[in-house]
Amino acid sequence: MHHDGANAFPMKHSQADISLSVLDGLKAAVLLVGPDRRVIFMNPAAEGLLETSIQRGCGRDVLDLVPMGMTLQGALISGEEGATTTLREEMLRGPLQAEAITVDCTVSPIDYGTQGPCMIVELSQVDQVARMTRETTLQENQGAFSQVARALAHEIKNPLGGIRGAAQLLDSELSDKDLREYTRIITHETDRLNGLVDRLTGGYSAGEHESFNLHAVLEHVRKLTQVENPEGLEFERDYDPSIPDILGDHAQMTQAVLNIVRNAVQAMEGQGCIRLRTRVRRQCTIHHRRHRLAIEASITDNGPGIEPDLKERIFFPMVTGRPDGTGLGLALTREIISRHWGLITCTSEPGQTAFTLLLPVEEKA
Length: 365
Fold this sequence. Notes:
Blueprint: E1 2-4, H1 20-24, E2 29-33, E3 39-42, H2 44-50, H3 54-57, H4 62-65, H5 69-80, E4 84-92, E5 101-111, E6 117-125, H6 128-173, H7 177-201, E7 210-212, H8 214-228, E8 233-238, E9 246-248, H9 250-267, E10 272-286, E11 289-301, H10 329-339, E12 343-349, E13 352-360
Parallel strand pairs: 8-10
Antiparallel strand pairs: 1-4, 2-3, 2-6, 4-5, 5-6, 7-9, 10-11, 11-13, 12-13
Helix pairs in contact: 6-7, 8-9, 9-10
């Protein structure tokens, strides 16, 4: 624990000096804590970081909402004595958070008008910059790979068209029904390969844009998956009932989620638990653009996890950890999420693999 200005006097501010509307606009997560250590206010960035709303967070003991153990308790004691304390690279996993994160935490005393001596708790996510750098690198690599894939697809589809045309001509010349069955197999397989190449390069319809609720998509995928796997597979649902509708293609979004869930089922060999979770996010950044409102959906399984050497390439086409896999499912999912102006990320360790979708609400087609 590092103390900055341990002998400094407490910051003296009147209630007018600190405007909660100003705190609302800050990118850093900020909580205002009263003399009884209960949260008085939290800004939208804190709602997003701690994965809880201001309605659920206010009134709670800050040590419950920000469980950092004795280190935070020591900082609060120092704050009550008038010192500002900064904690570096602390692990944080709140009661409502899906994953642990690393944060820097600063606790500063403040005189907040009629509330009396309070404290400001500021949280900054340490790994956020690294995540944004990985996101940029992934976008660049994906873009370069897509150009190569489209060029390769062009070279593949030309001879496929010739094979299909020749098979159709041969079919019209043959009178033997058994022999014509072979030409139909050739035609069917060339069509299948054409479709595979189209899906690989994103050459499928952009679809219709409509307003829909993500819970409807998740529930459809859950029911479909349970029909396909009636025994041994369990779903847990943790839905935020307040999430608004988003604008996009309902069918494509269903396919994107289905790809993730089916991968999870295959990784667990049909035996395990999948957790579906949704939350509203405020003032979040997606692809370097700030959004007022977004929906976060996570799909987590308790399977064996993704091999470490595949983690950074899991969204690339033709990258798969299964001998019988095509490596197209997650590449298509990422393409669909991108078409909805969103972001998909993955974290994985043995016993917990989580795919998280972040979809902006206010965007228009």
